[in-house]
Amino acid sequence: MNQTAEFDPDKTKELEERFDPEVRFRPLGKVAAFIAALLLFALSLFHYYTAGFGLLREATHRGVHLAFVLSLIFIVFAATPKGQERLYPSSLLRPFGLPILDWLFAIAAAVSALYVPFIFDDLAFRVGNPLPIDVVMGTVLIVVLLEATRRSMGWPLAAIAVVVMAYGLFGQYAPGVLVHPGADWKTLVNHLYLTSQGIYGLPVGVVATYVFHFVLFGVLATRIGLGRLFIDLASALAGRFSGGPAKVSVFSSALLGSISGSSIANTVTTGSLTIPAMIRIGYPRHFAAAVEAAASTGGQITPPVMGAAAFLMIEFLGVSYTTIITAAIVPAFMHFFGVLVQVHLEAKRLGLRGLTKEELPKVGAVLKRDWPTVVPLILLIAILMQGYTPYLAAFWGITACIVVGLVNPLNRIGPRDVFDAFVLGAKYALAVGAAAATVGIIIGVVTLTGVSFKIAYMVTSTAGGWAAAVAPFIPFDVMGVSTLTLLITLLLTAIVCIVMGCGIPTTATYLIMVSVAAPVLGLLGIAPLVAHFFVFYYGVLADVTPPVALAAYAGAGIANANPFKAGNTAFRLSMGKALVPFVFVFAPSLLLVTDGFTWQAFALAFSGTIVGITALSAAFAGWLAGPLYAAERWLLAAAAMLLVAPELVSTLIGLAIVALVIARQTLMPKEAAAV
Q1: ω into 304 cis (within 30 of 0)
Q2: How many CB atoms are closer than 10 A to CB 164?
Q3: pTM to 2 decimals?
Q4: Which DSSP category does 5 fall into?
Q5: Helix (H) or strand (E) segment spanning residue 543
């Protein structure tokens, strides 16, 4: 049976809105909906046009983007959960059904965001000595920005920004090395509002010139049927193997995630098909939800589109997009390999079947029906590979989606569908736009106070002290003090990334950690590209890390499973992703584009990582060629950790442990082992 027939876009949309606060839009009356749709379409059209025909002056481009984004948030997001569920009639205090305060917030956001571009010619004379009107406008923008962020993605990021601003104002009372002279409100507003180090800084610039366009491309590509092509191809190629639907989930999530860049959207789109199929053949409900969630988080790290953080890396590191997606290839493969191995071992342990021929679509029929839908993606990748800007590639990708959709007789879309896609694409980009501007506040305070270097000193000093204390107790000189210092620093950084990511989205986590944690790794000699990828990967991992594992909870909603149990299992399934960042820190050749790359170093790192991920997966599953003793599971987990380390001794010990377990399973009857 062709699984596409079971796909319900309305159910998918409902699930996405239920579990993703960034797309939890409130109901609007006809007039308010019309106004919102026109503004959203105008925002998408503005970005589409400037991507193809030239960006505006930096301050103007960012100001227009921010004015649209913040104003629209007050129209499409309610201030309270009650307002998200109820449609109010129009009245004097609720023009067109929206509270008059929301309209005032929207106007204030537009005016204060456009003020900086308006005074741009005089800006150089005001930075450092702002006029009273500058301070007022800056204060207004900060207030409406924090409220817009709270509405569109919850309180954690806005609360962090408030705490950081308080640190900027009252730093003289901070403890120890964190102390600084403190700034008055005028100085703080000047830095955050009038300079390019704050709200109008790099994060907003990247969203306005890169991220928005690829969100729009993903919406249009899905609308013309590219997502259906990916899901059906994955079903045809992987569905017949043991535990087939789970393997379909992994492959389809990798393909679909490459254009969506959203963990939750990926989970509900592919999961609405794969999760019921996994349950039907015998996977436990929580495991089925976890597989889809773990696989779907890979979308943000899968080339060519990846998540918003990929575009931020371009600006932070000053490298080409080609460099970023090349560096992401092997780590993305390792993530999906890790999930696939655990899925396979679980299927073998449970004795699960694959899908029958009747349940699978035919490759030929799928390609015949949907091959035109892949043309825009091929065009986008080709333009990127030629070295053109990502936004120009997105422009031609979007254009190709429109052309293919209008002329493809098997999945034709009309002008109204294009309009709706432009509206939806802009809606999906609102929350990340607000987050980027709010992170600009955090980065602005960091640059104003220099706190990142103080934190880096504290962390590295602490890690060095712990390493010196632990090193004498490690046998065989497996790790020296310097390696232990780096390992402890990485562990501390990873924990902070995961904790931060539990409350705020990946993009915001990445931006904050790059400002605070990346300098820590830099002090230990880690290359900037490697450091950025490390914090990026652990920020993504937060989507399946309880207690706020939104992708896992979305999967649990489809499976009718225990959300917390699904989150714990999804985190376990993502252990390959957790292991890989440590590998490419110790063996940067795994990223392909680092200085000093050699194929010999790459081959050693690649093979060691494959063995390490397999060992760790077997340890969690309790199964390799057969059931494992409890002691063997612990040995395999230890072997996986040893294979991460760069020293030859630790690698050889890890390989010896794995070989020992395999030998035991080969020589002893399976019945003799106890799980």
Answers
A1: yes
A2: 20
A3: 0.85
A4: G
A5: none
Burial pattern 93-123, b for ≥16 Cβ within 10 A else e, equals ebebbbbeebbebbebbbbbbbbbbebeeeb
| Average pLDDT over every residue of 588-593 | 89
Kindly give, in sequence order, each residue whose CB lies less than 8 Å from that of residue 25, ignoring residues fewer than 6 positions away.
17, 76, 77, 84, 427
Cα dist. 127→133, 444, 519 in Å?
13, 14, 27
Return the residue matching tokens 């500058």. Answer: 134
Hey, what are 4's tokens?
A: 């596409």
Tokens encoding 180: 């600084």
Closest CA to 35 of 80, 82, 71: 71
Q: Which stretch, 59-63, 484-488, 612-616, has highest mean pLDDT?
A: 59-63
- Name residue 16's amino acid: E
Alpha helices, H only, 517-629: 518-523, 528-541, 550-559, 563-573, 575-586, 599-621
- If you search the block for the tokens 């390959």, which residue do you land on? 576
Is there a domain that residue 71 lies in? yes
Task: Give the model's pLDDT for residue 5.
Answer: 40
Domain hosting 99: range is 3-154
Domain membership of residue 241 (yes or no) is: no
Count of structural domains within the chain: 1
Distance CA 515, CA 445 (A): 10
Instruction: Tell me the C-alpha to C-alpha distance, in Å, between residue 492 and each of 265, 463, 484, 487, 577.
Output: 30, 9, 12, 9, 17
Please give the Cα distance from 395 to 380 (Å, whole number).
9
d(CA 109, CA 296): 35
